Amino acid sequence: MSDPATGPGCVIAGGGPGGMVLAYLLGRAGVPVTLLEAHRDFDREFRGDSLHPYTLELLDQLGLAGELLALPHHKARYFRFHTPAGTITTADYGQIPTRFNYVALMRQAQFLDFLAARIESLPRCQVRTGCRVTDLVREPDGRISGVRYRDSTGHHDLPAALVVAADGRFSKLRRLADLPVRSLGATTDLLWFTVPRRDSDPPEAGVDVFFGRDHYVGLLTGTAGWQVGYTLPKGGYAAAREAGVEPIRRAVAALVPWLADRVAHLTDMAQTTLLSVDISRVERWWRPGLLLIGDAAHVISPVGGNGILMAVQDAVTAANRLTPALSSGRAVPDAVLAAIQAERQSAIHQVQSDQVRLERRAAEARESGRPIAPPALLRVVTAIPGVRRRAAAANAYGPTPPHLEVPALVKSNRDDWKALSDKAQGTALTRLADVADTVADRSVLVGYSRAGYRLRRHSWPADDPRRDALAGRTALVTGASSGIGMAAAAGLARLGARVVLVVRDEDRGNQARNRILRQVPRAELVVARCDVADLDDVTRFAAEARAQWPTVDLLVHNAGVLPAKRQESRQGHEITLATHVLGPMLLTERLRPALAASADARVVFVSSGGMYTQSVPAGDVDYRQGRFRGAVAYARTKRLQVAFTTRLAARYARDGIAVHAMHPGWADTPGITNSLPIFRRITKPLLRDATEGADTIVWLAATQPPPPSGRFWHDRRERPAHYLPGRHDNAEHVHRAWLHCSEAARLNTSQNG
Ligand SMILES: Cc1cc2nc3c(=O)[nH]c(=O)nc-3n(C[C@H](O)[C@H](O)[C@H](O)COP(=O)(O)OP(=O)(O)OC[C@H]3O[C@@H](n4cnc5c(N)ncnc54)[C@H](O)[C@@H]3O)c2cc1C
Fold this sequence. Notes:
The protein is α/β, with parallel strands linked by helices. Helices cover 40% and strands 19% of the residues. The chain folds into four domains: 10-71 and 107-184 and 280-355, 3-Layer(bba) Sandwich (FAD/NAD(P)-binding domain); 74-105 and 188-233 and 235-276 and 371-401, 2-Layer Sandwich (D-Amino Acid Oxidase, Chain A, domain 2), CATH 3.30.9; 420-459, no CATH class; 470-744, NAD(P)-binding Rossmann-like Domain (Rossmann fold, 3-Layer(aba) Sandwich), CATH 3.40.50.720. Strands 25-24-23-26-27-28-29-30 form an eight-stranded mixed β-sheet, sandwiched between helices. A seven-stranded mixed β-sheet has the order 6-5-15-16-17-14-18. A six-stranded mixed β-sheet has the order 8-2-1-12-21-20. β10 (144-151) and β11 (154-159) form a beta hairpin. The structure holds flavin-adenine dinucleotide. Flavin-adenine dinucleotide binds next to α1, β2, β9, β18 and α8.
């Protein structure tokens, strides 16, 4: 049975810390999420209660820390080793420069209940308990496209744009996906149990380890009492159960004398929880359509108590990278899944290799009959100023803590923005602005002019791209040597992108580069020559571009021509068709692998408001018949760009590449001056400047969450593709034009074509 409630969002299997944090983050970013948890509630055996400073800061960023910390918890400020020679404080969280300079020890069930309630309050998000995932649903090509789960009413299928396996160390989904686990070897097991607190107990909580001859005891304070961890050699549980609780009571009382008066509370081995210590990981965290996070991807030992921290950090990295694709309803490209693993695995490897070293040390001590003890030098080292702080910080944040990309997640979705703007401006005012915007748009003269831009600017929602929104991204802009192309390149560079100015004339490209550098001195700009009307040159350029930039995040098709007389490209195509349609189609196709490698690839076609005056021609796409008029050829090919946008969006959806078309309004650019001098003379006072014309290009390239793919935009709003009667496209004409152009542009029409 298929479940219609969720739509093609994200399905997360497993409601542990990893799955729940990811569900919340994605949900806050507007992604539909269904989390399936096998158990009926979160209240089960002890699995760790530690919330590290990283986790608390994350919750604080999300505005949740205050509420969470109002719930019962203890603050552990130290990590201490107790040996017969005395106590060594190895880490002092109190010295870390953060408001949350402690590890919060809170019942995990309470933390998970708290998150579940927050997830449930998000639109299109739900947590379903008592739902055990039993199988993966696969497409004929092997891609995972959903799960099968069992609840009290039977079996159900749930489709998903992405399935996340957060189902813990014994992950069923990992097995179903045939992702083998490699064990790195562990030599210890741990038995956990609780004993009550007393008023006379040491008031200061910490994370304490008491070293004995054959065992060590870990001690954590908790709201339900002291959580005691008692070590056993690996596989020693059967013998321990045979021996019963008495040897455990004796060992604990000897190592932690002030607990001697209550070890008698341990009366039965059934009161203990076995943690079979494991250090293991999968080599690959993903399959197409499936991602593993947390313990499902890697199990770490309890040393350092940061299994929860690692799961939470996996969730943050995953949310940062998944949000762009999932919030626009696109399938998540494999490259994004691989990137999540690549980003997280070095931290996991580092934690695990430290743990393997400690495990080996304990095993060697056991084999040689020496007491298990921390290194003798530790006392000296930890006395050096700053060492305890650094040790605490290393444990508090892990090796490479991912930063939450807050604007993407906090400025959730468009509905939220609308709500925000409604709140800020008053609903009636916002509606008025909506009406004014629409009237301006239909009146053309007002909407496309400078006045239209300025009128609308005041009613835009709060979705301006972040100042560094494009840091680390590579953008290619065609026709970037002047006008809107140059303004778009400058706008993208201002947001941190490396911009490739794709130009026909390198000298003019270099002049544009210098002009942009005067405005954006730190811009990273490269000039590259390509005549987009010449398909052979496009093929050459695309190959070189792919070699130089294996990942391309943004491709802006801006190059345009408006010839007075009919001209043909080198391949014999009418020149506006070649420049506006065929070249861009071929360039996108040839750059497809580089775009697919981006976590958030966007292609923008810079069309024209002039396209409203034309419909897709019934044939003769190359404009061979009738009197040739440059403005008509221009408008027809700009119409084709808009008509093809939905097809191109569908074609590239699988690779996670979004395709947008926009029109800049009437902007005062050299193109207008040269091609339409009379129009310019009459309208000059009304024309926008190039930066105003390029505004929507930059916004489409950088705003978060990504605007939905396959639409037509003007002044940061989706606009209808048709206004004028008699100009609506005939589906058959569009299809024929598409076949003609995709063949001319050498697209492999067998693919989604
Ligand atoms: C006894 C013990 C003590 C620990 N102590 C600590 C500690 O002090 N500090 C620390 O940081 N870490 C500790 N850990 C480790 C910590 O629990 C994990 O690293 C952390 O919980 C991993 O989070 P997760 O979300 O990846 O997976 P889990 O927390 O394991 O969550 C997985 C969830 O998936 C559910 N599930 C499983 N199969 C299915 C299925 N087929 N369908 C649907 N749901 C499913 C499970 O019921 C579970 O709720 C301890 C672990 C154990 C076992």
